[in-house]
Specification:
12 helices; mainly alpha; single chain
Length: about 230
């Protein structure tokens, strides 16, 4: 009887729930430690278009940190007696820092250019309706980045393959794309209601939602593009 109880300990529903909460809190702390300093500088910057390039530089560390969080939560263990989210985060960071940084930097450069054009519409003399296409392009780039970040965090591909596969899966997996659009709307709403700090404090939860949204994408990549 004692052995049976020991075997069951840490694997029940309540224990798994506690393990998930602990994992999310540990990953959130790791996110804040690795990306927090740069994000803090962004909050302190004046809301001026001329500061967009500097804000992009401050946001660079967030890419590898998010990639490590994706890796850690995807490889989470729900046995309360065998939790190592900090180890998983460090391993994910070490494995994916280069690929994630390339994807993240490319996205930051693109949205920075779009943001500067969007805020400078009046100065350039372009009609106001140009804002619509710029926002759509920025949204598309962000959806591509989310796919690319998931792929490069969980699989091993060459960068050019990640670029193509992420774009293709936006069409191949429309449910993932629609779900990520909803995630972006929720994130934008959080910034509008509170501040950018709200996103940082809910980082691990947003990563969990992104992984949930990407289940079909992960399955397709695993079954069709890996051996």
């Amino acid at each position: 009887m004692t052995m049976s109880v020991e075997q069951r300990f840490g694997t029940g529903t309540l224990s798994q729930g506690a393990a998930m909460i602990y994992t999310l809190l540990a990953v959130e702390l790791a996110l804040l430690l690795t990306a927090g300093p740069g994000l803090t500088l962004i909050v302190l910057l004046e809301p001026d278009a001329s500061n967009l390039p500097l804000a992009a530089l401050c946001a660079l560390p967030a890419g590898p940190a998010l990639s490590a969080a994706l890796y850690a939560i995807h490889h989470r263990r729900l046995d309360l007696t065998d939790l190592r989210p900090g180890f998983a985060f460090r391993r994910g960071y070490r494995l994916n820092v280069r690929g994630a940084l390339v994807v993240w930097a490319a996205w930051l450069a693109w949205v920075t250019i779009l943001g500067m054009n969007l805020t400078g519409l009046g100065a350039t003399g372009l009609p106001g309706w140009w804002a619509g296409p710029l926002v759509l392009v920025g949204t598309g780039a962000t959806l591509w980045m989310l796919n690319a970040l998931v792929i490069t965090s969980l699989f091993v591909f060459r960068t050019r393959d990640v670029v193509r596969l992420s774009a293709y899966l936006m069409i191949r997996c429309p449910g993932v794309t629609v779900s990520n659009i909803c995630l972006l709307v929720a994130a934008a709403g959080g910034v509008w209601l509170w501040s950018e700090a709200a996103l940082a404090l809910a980082g691990s939860l947003l990563v969990l939602v992104l992984l949930g949204n990407s289940r079909q994408l992960i399955t397709v990549v695993r079954q069709e593009y890996t051996r």
